[in-house]
């Protein structure tokens, strides 16, 4: 039944986590006989899948069919000799495979196929896009180059599973799972791994405790607040990774943040990781985006293209600041798709109406209920191409009244701004929060200007001429910073875009009329 329908978010998480528990990671020599390695490992149990990747040397990810194959392998593995350094005797699922006689043992080995863990640079992508036959094809091409691969997803769940092995030393019931871009279908190759530590399935425990005429409960240390408990737990696990975790480096404990976390670099998998303690609302946001991403292939293709476009033009940045975040930008795309006629994706309120009893969920007073079974959501009747949607996205936000209106994904419509932030996007669940509160006026104006410029390029380009001249066209033309190739054209079209800036300048200077502003500028 599960294979014929799209899996729910929870089913995918459970399946991937179980897969990761049956998986080991092996550092291999440069010259390797793949057949002999697999032959040796198969003596411990059947190998279900495997792949190789490059990360400061060649690594193999090996997934066994049975979990006990790992126990068998661990029993046969030696401890490194402590000649130069003393070793911490923590036995993880990270191994190093060496050849005792490299020359003869590597003989007959062919170069192994390496699975890519990063996407190609934009400058290498542009020539590829120029060979496509439509903007839609270009957008799907970009999606295929940038999206997480099956192998990369397995590696992300393995990184979480290896951290979980440490957490279980203290909390035997705990789990560590990814959330955010690693699981919401919008992650690109190379993005960080956000992971959360969860302690037990509270619902499962609640049902067990109801039986019988008496109650038994654990004696546990009590602390004045949940936040303090979170800080103490993360501090200890951060120290544990720092002191004993093979390949865990650059540990930073950021315990006073709104959401306390531990940042670290996981050398074996090559990921930058952020570990926090279960944040139920962040996980529901991941699930909501997962549903939207699964409903229609155009959703992900549009998000990936818009996010790549935004990064090229400096509208987003990997460093926190006053620019639009990828999450805000993704929500802007979702809002745009809700506003199509007919809509391409449903509003959150419509998803809530489809929810049944098991989907009902209130977290911290916020209603986070929505349908989790994708088969209950009717497919859209909208047949617009991505060519149309991309141009209309830029037009929609290039002319959006950001001064007056905010974006509400629960209702799927613009509503008056509750406060004066330049960009106001309602948090879908915590309805009193603006997810784009960090964005300032200059950054929003830059976004509007580049969106208008992009809409203009798509409306006025002559694909045939550009193909003859071997010039980038369609999406490819939008992935070149505008100042570089067409500075003079841009200058003319930017006229009239700065009106917001002039208006705010007028307000701030409290000048009586536009004439006095002209005099001031004239001087």
Describe the structure.
A hairpin with a 2-residue loop joins strand 10 and strand 11 (366-367). By secondary structure, the chain is of the alpha+beta class. The protein has helices at residues 9-21, 34-42, 68-76, 102-105, 122-130, 135-146, 150-170, 202-209, 226-244, 280-295, 297-312, 326-338, 348-353, 386-398, 441-460, 463-468, 475-478, 482-485, 487-493, 499-509, 514-522; strands at residues 23-28, 47-54, 58-64, 94-96, 175-179, 193-198, 248-254, 261-266, 271-277, 362-363, 366-367, 405-408, 413-416. The longest helix is centred in the N-terminal third of the chain and has 21 residues, at 150-170. Strands 5-6-9-8-7 form a five-stranded mixed sheet, sandwiched between helices. A four-stranded mixed sheet has the order 2-3-1-4, sandwiched between helices. The N and C termini lie far apart (76 Å). 44% of the residues lie in helices and 13% in strands. The chain contains 21 helices and 13 strands. Among the domains are: 9-96, RRM (RNA recognition motif) domain (Alpha-Beta Plaits), CATH 3.30.70.330; 127-132 and 297-345 and 380-458, Poly(a)-polymerase, middle domain, CATH 1.10.1410.10. GO terms for molecular function: poly(A) RNA polymerase activity. This is Mitochondrial poly(A) polymerase.
